[in-house]
Design a protein that fits this description.
By secondary structure, this protein is mainly β. Helix content is 8%, strand content 59%.
């Protein structure tokens, strides 16, 4: 299957994985962004999960473990490493179903662990903890306690992560810091092992605020034909 968005395109194949061809102009500082991203799954997960009590929001970690290769012509960047690919879909906007969520993924030896901690508008907090073996076998485990992390340095987005052990998890780096969303690298412990996790925090109360809604077109321009 393929999708074209302006001059850029995405192509998904169960055999070849995901190929993204990028040809865009960056914002807010205009500059050319051109190149290709290829994601090669270790395995494909077929199971999807309902995230809310009414079954209106769904999540499927399609490639919990993968490799990625990034080749950009402009700017000149080339790197490869571990990757992950999922999809969310639903019958209503996310901000109508959730107050916030924290998500994280970490390699555990040859396996990987994915954790969700969602604060739903209807119902209590919903924690989810999944372990995927290298061959794709899926098992759930008891979600570890939730730990509060320092907010992001610029926009003060709240962050939290589920983690084990006596030593509290530690923010190693903040990769993205926006008014309603953050992405970070966390030093943590899961399934009895030290781990480095990629973490995201999403505040949908902030997202729906009029100020943030006003700013969105400047970050993600909408061009009319």
């Amino acid at each position: 299957s393929a999708l074209g968005i302006g001059p850029s395109s995405l192509c998904w194949s169960p055999d070849d994985g995901l190929t993204v061809n990028i040809d865009e102009i960056g914002t807010p500082i205009p500059r050319r962004v051109r190149g290709q991203v290829k994601l090669s799954p270790t395995f494909i997960n077929e199971q999807a999960f309902n995230l809310d009590v009414n079954g209106l929001h769904h999540w499927r970690p399609m490639a919990p473990s993968a490799r990625i290769e990034v080749k950009l012509e402009q700017p000149a960047l080339h790197w490869s490493g571990h990757a992950y690919f999922d999809r969310n879909w639903g019958e209503e906007p996310l901000e109508d179903g959730f107050v916030s969520w924290n998500w994280s993924r970490a390699n555990i030896g040859e396996d990987c662990a994915i954790l969700y901690h969602m604060q739903r508008k209807q119902g209590d907090a919903f924690p989810l903890a999944l372990r995927f073996a290298r061959d794709g076998a899926l098992s759930e485990f008891d979600p570890p306690p939730n730990h509060r992390l320092p907010p992001t340095p610029i926009w003060r987005v709240p962050r939290g992560i589920q983690a084990e052990g006596e030593h509290p998890p530690r923010v190693m780096d903040t990769l993205e810091d926006t008014p309603f969303y953050s992405r970070s690298v966390i030093e943590t412990q899961l399934l009895g092992q030290p781990a480095t996790a990629v973490h995201e925090s999403l505040s949908l109360e902030r997202f729906r605020s009029p100020v943030v809604q006003y700013m969105l077109p400047y970050r993600m321009p909408r061009r009319r034909r």
